[in-house]
Write a structure and sequence with these properties.
The chain is built from ten helices and 15 strands. It has 344 residues and is of the alpha/beta class. The chain folds into two domains: 218 residues, Rossmann fold (3-Layer(aba) Sandwich); 107 residues, 3-Layer(aba) Sandwich (Rossmann fold).
């Protein structure tokens, strides 16, 4: 997030060239340059301001309780600490580490994880971390070594199969260097206790024995492909905005609800396509009254945005899991559009 529009417009940018490693079968951005990424206090990825997302975290907690009750935990990449504090409230013994942490909680270290930190527990939690690190197998090997080559691990990442199925081009962005499928983790770990999908299929998770980490090997059955029409939604959605009119014939205003990564990519590509987005809305106070990368659009509180949007204006909902929540919060007075591709 940026305090000045000029900074947001001139933010660091990089290319995304998705590739598949023919040795491991893993999908990654071949053009990724880690030097362009800095996770600091201006990096705001907390989603727990949403009731729908807190419900998701409740589902994650049930999995953690099934396997990790009574165990000492380490959450690597704990963000702003919301989930860690939630686990503490449930009676877990948990420590955390994250360079973007901004508070003063005594159990959280503000730093990048390094194997030599001697940060260990009977179980490791990696929620939405592995997609951010170059060479994820080497990173996991470092976690395994730091943990004495033993313990459980819970991993949660975005699901590449869901991205492909729903033509979610806005879910491809620079901070994510890796894109995982469930079968990748079955090749990474010899012993998997449980694996599946969460958050309407957008995320996948695995509970595994960290000691059984192994170098994954590619097979022909693991070949990945993007759908031919993967980016067609960019032009389709831009046309919706350009051609949308109120009953009076005047151009319809368009807003994006969701100022996280999906919203950043969506607004940027709409601008590049000549489609006007009037404002971005987000419930996260740390995003409000700041500017998002690339497009330089200001993030409004829901209350302030709804004051400037006319009834029947377009509201593009960046995550379908929040549809009911957003309609309720905005009084069901607008034209609501989900941005994902719906398969018939």
């Amino acid at each position: 997030m940026f305090a000045a529009q000029s900074e947001a417009l001139n933010c660091v940018k990089g290319d995304v060239v998705l590739s598949q490693d023919m040795e491991t079968g893993l999908i990654f951005n071949r053009a990724f340059n880690a030097k362009l990424i800095e996770y600091d206090s201006d990096y705001q990825n907390e989603q727990a301001n949403s009731l729908s997302f807190r419900n998701h975290l409740s589902e994650v907690t049930k999995i953690i309780q099934r396997y990790f009750s009574g165990k000492s935990l380490v959450e690597i990449g704990c963000g702003k600490g919301f989930f860690l504090k939630h686990l503490l409230s449930k009676g877990f013994d948990v420590k955390g580490i994250d360079p973007a942490y901004t508070g003063e909680h005594p159990t959280i270290i503000k730093a990048y994880f390094e194997p030599n930190l001697s940060l260990s527990g009977e179980a490791i939690i990696l929620r939405h971390v592995l997609e951010h690190v170059p060479d994820p197998v080497t990173f996991l090997s470092g976690v395994k070594k730091a943990n004495g080559n033993k313990g459980y691990i819970y991993i949660e990442v975005p699901c590449f199969d869901w991205i492909c199925k729903h033509r979610a081009w806005f879910d491809i962005y620079y901070e994510h260097v890796n894109y995982f499928r469930l079968q990748d983790f079955y090749r990474m770990f010899e012993k998997v206790y449980e694996a599946g999908y969460l958050f309407g299929g957008q995320y996948l998770f695995v509970v595994a024995d960290l000691a059984t980490l192994q170098h994954p090997k590619f097979t022909e059955e693991e070949m990945a492909e993007l759908p031919d029409d993967f980016t067609q939604g960019i032009n389709n959605l831009a046309d919706v905005i350009k051609n949308s009119r109120y009953s009076t014939g005047a151009p319809r205003q368009s807003a994006v609800w969701g100022g996280a990564s999906k919203g950043v990519i969506f607004t940027l590509f709409m601008q590049r396509s000549g489609a006007t987005i009037n404002c971005v809305i987000d419930v996260n106070p740390e995003k409000q009254d700041k500017y998002i990368a690339g497009s330089g659009l200001l993030v409004y509180t829901p209350e302030n945005a709804l004051k400037i949007l006319k009834p029947k204006s377009n509201i593009f909902i960046m995550n379908e899991n929040y549809v009911s929540e957003i309609i309720t919060q905005s009084g069901n007075k607008y034209n609501y559009l989900k941005v994902i591709h719906e398969e018939i």
